[in-house]
Amino acid sequence: MISEAAATGKPVYLLDLDGGNPKFAHFHKLMRESGITRPFAGQLENWSYNPPDDTQKSGTALRTLILRHLSRPG
User: How far, in Å, are 3, 47, 70 from residue 40 at the CA level?
Assistant: First the structure.
């Protein structure tokens, strides 16, 4: 759900909870380092960032995979 919220370009706050796993910890770290999320410390702030948009990147990767598959013999 963080990805969906980040697509709005509006501030996204996170609460650190116990548990989780390394995959999500890495994702949260990247989002925080990118300036997309911030930990909620009891006060609302206002900041902006360029919303992530991986549509072009995903389309290019998919096109490459399809073309590679179609070019295989038999």
Answer: 17, 13, 49
